[in-house]
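Running this now, will post back.
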Amino acid sequence: MAPIRLIAATRILSFPSKLKRLWSLNFMRPYFSDDKNRDTFYFLTHDYYLSRYFTLAERVDCAISHYSFEGENYGHTYRSSVYQSPLGLTLWQRVVDGTRYTITLRATDDNRYEGDLSVLCFADNARVCRVSFSYVNRVLFGLQPELTMFVTRNQTDRNAELQLFRNAFKQNSPCYFCLAAVCGIAMAHGMRAIFMVRDDAQIAYNKLYAEGFRNSYSALWEAFGAEEIDDRNAYKMSIPLKLNPLSNVKHKTRAVARRRNWMEIISSARRAMLEDRASRAPLPLEVDTEAFLPPDHLN
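Update: finished.
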């Protein structure tokens, strides 16, 4: 670890009770690879963690919340797949015209401070999209204490495989597939809502690219029915999604095809997560198929 980052990591000593709680989780060995260059205290050693607006204390709390939730809900098999294996946990897959499309859940392999876990969409072995998130406490958003998901990164890879995806899944985008998988994960935990980072709170935000960040974050969340939380730099999105009913969609055939893809991914991701639950699973949420229609601008 670079000296500057080492100094930054020592800031956790200012929170002795939180440090004690963090160590009690034994979060290093199960949740990190054997890479000697790993940045164990990534939530303190970088300028930001999950949001540009979280305080140091909130950043430590977020790390505690995430690894507490993972430890309470999942066991060795899950941790081995998600945190140790480069393959991750398969949430969904399908072969179209000889190309295998896969969505997996893995520990974020580059900037974990941008979201501890990532839902990844692949065309064969090439990644075409990444949506990252962490488990956090809803008190961050001014609500009663309860663990939830906080989506913190949306990144589409511009490569040849992206066009393959678009050819295979007309009128669609890989980020929508990843978001469908995120919804499936939330449903596996019985969550009725999840939260999304506002564009200017995303840790890589740059005013020079403000429009691009707006389109990739806030505008996307709003298109899926999410509502901004005043003074919290985040959006709240209901599960199931609140989108247009089929009766209001102009191109119904396209919408039905997209809905089937979404529902397949949601159900598959939910099932994959429930199979690996270490504790008793919550009661399943009722799924309204018409709630998972694409926004108007995709019709």
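Residues 199 and 219 are 8 Å apart (CA to CA). More later if anyone needs it.
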